[in-house]
Amino acid sequence: MKPWLEVQEQAPLTPGIPGKTLLLVDENMDDLLYYTAILQHLGYEVRACGSYTDAANLFARQQFDLVIVSQGGTAFEGRAVLARAIEADHQTPVLVLTPAADINCYIEAMQMGAFDYLEKPLRPSELADLVRTHIGSSAPGPAPAGASRGLVH
User: Fold this and answer.
1) Are 74 and 98 in contact (CB under 8 A)?
2) Closest by alpha carbon to 24, among 1, 6, 2, 40?
3) 11 Cβ contact partners less than 8 Å away, ≥ 6 residues apart
4) 124-134 vs 3-10: helix crossing angle, rounded to 10
5) CA 45 and chain centroid, separation
6) How confident is the model at residue 22 (pLDDT cuts 50, 70, 90)?
7) Is the Cβ–Cβ distance between 44 and 21 less than 8 Å?
């Protein structure tokens, strides 16, 4: 059984906001599949992409209600996706996930306009709460009540 299903059985997840489309970008296929499964289970339409280059090109063809992008390594490979998301619509919330927090990447992501910078792994309930909180956000600034708006580990 998948770990997220075990957690879900212990504490049922509240369904997501219907009709919302999310872009999820991660070159780590295990993480991509894990987070996609959780978000789809919550009822979101998820466009999962395992390539930063391919994801950056999607903004010319599609709009998203929320973008979740993995930082990649300390070279911040997800930077291009963050930049394209902000360029396409600066009001679309972008969350940057990282396998290991890096202060330089954190500062760069937040200065570029990311809404949040979060350390993996996220529990299903954490992911559900973050998406629900940010999906109604409009622009970087003070975080809504309950939002982390910064480094989380």
Assistant:
1) no
2) 40
3) 125
4) 80
5) 13
6) very high
7) yes
- Between CA 135 and CA 103 the distance in angstroms is 25
> Residue 94 burial (CB < 10 Å; 0-12/13-18/19+)?
buried
Query: What is residue 66's three-state secondary structure?
Result: strand
As beta bridge partners, residue 79 has none
Residue 44 confidence (pLDDT) above 80: yes
Q: pLDDT-based confidence at 138, cuts 50/70/90? A: very low
Tokens of 34: 């894990």
Type of residue numbered 53:
T
- Which tokens sit at 94? 């972008």
Q: Which residues pair with 70 in a beta bridge?
A: 97
Q: At which residue do the structure tokens 């969350």 appear?
A: 95
**Distance (Å, whole) CA 66 – CA 94:** 6
Which residues lie below 8 Å from residue 131, measured CB to CB, with a gap of 6+? 16, 22, 39, 42, 44, 66, 68
Query: What are the tokens at 16?
Result: 């997501």
